Amino acid sequence: MVISNKPLRFIIAILIACLPVFGFANTVTEATPTQTETAVVANEATPKVVDEKSEIKEKIKEVIGHHVLDGHEFSLFSDSETGEHYGFPLPIILWDNGVQFFSSSKFNHGEAVAESNGNYYKLLHEKIYKTDASGTLTGDEHNPTNIQPIDLSITKGVLTIMVVALLMFLLFTSLAKSYAKNGGISSGFGRLFEPIVLYIRDEIAIPNIGEKHYKKYMSYLLTIFFFVWFLNIFGLTPLGINVTGNIAITFGLAVITFVITNISANKYYWGHIFWMPGVPVPMKIILAPIELLGVFIKPFALMIRLYANIFAGHIVLMSLIGLMFIFKNWMGSSLSFMLSFAISTIEILVALLQAYIFTMLSALYFGSAKEEHGHEEAHV
């Protein structure tokens, strides 16, 4: 039998209206707690809930900070209940009255003081400080005033760079050998990347640099594209790798582009910066400092664009995952999971897009440095 909506709503309304009438079944004298007792219990339970949520939030912040920062050991995962860490140590190389070389396992995940040749060091927030035998840190807890030796260690980011460099060497060496062996026809696994190599040559290098000069820049453009792309992909794995989200790495890549651009620039490039043709002399004097400033702004834009996009992507993704542990219910956790999955899918596209943008802008800078303006003498 089908009940229409109106009678069903009327029955529900009647039941709700009658609820207070049946409320006398639980009197004050019975085991049911009074309003005062309920308020006391609620007040006692609320701080516990607040403390628990605050503790979870602090742990999430700690995990996010650990994920985006570089590390002196390669931690795969850890068990919070037993305190066990699973991973492997990395070599520590310090310059402190000579070279100090030892394993990161001496730090015991930052809980112990490491000794090397009579010197003592403490690891705090992935920074190494020189201390005494007891590991005393002076000053602020988060920013100690202890001496920091020059750190040349093989960190997690450095190890990832080495792995990517080795992978690229093996991959493209085999691709080059297959070209030579098969008369210009690729074979093997490297064949998958041949269309990308041709795309960078035909759609990035030649249009922006020109047929005459593009070949001398091809090796760098291919290297920078696949290097940034592979590092971005490694950053999407659960290994806690965030190389291109480190501003020191993007700064180094931008400096390389800056040096190549200005070393290979011709006289027309510098002429347009310091003494623009076809412009009145007073305007030349005003515009020259601005154009010179633009020389340094270009690599700065390269550095910030790559760093900010990758770093922000990691923060957003880890924050969404952390929301699952805060909500602790099927609706909030499911929503957080779906959002994190969607962001992860977008990050795969961003990984490729940022490599493309960095390569494209580098090619544009190289093209402006090699552009010839022989026709402009007529405007002077």
Strand order of the largest sheet: 4-3-8
Order of helices and strands: HHEEEEEEEEHHHHHHH
- Main sheet summary: 3 strands, antiparallel
Multimer state: single chain
How would the global form be characterised? Answer: globular
Mean pLDDT over the full residue set: 80
Task: Work out the radius of gyration.
Answer: 31 Å
Question: What would your notes on this structure say?
Answer:
It is a single chain. This protein has 380 residues and is mostly helical. It contains nine helices and eight strands. The strands form three sheets. The protein has a three-stranded antiparallel sheet, with no helix packed on it. A hairpin with a 6-residue loop joins strand 1 (73-78) and strand 2. Helix 2 (35-68) crosses helix 8 (281-327). The longest helix is centred in the last third of the chain and has 47 residues, at 281-327. The protein is globular. The protein starts with a helix and ends in a 10-residue tail after the last helix.
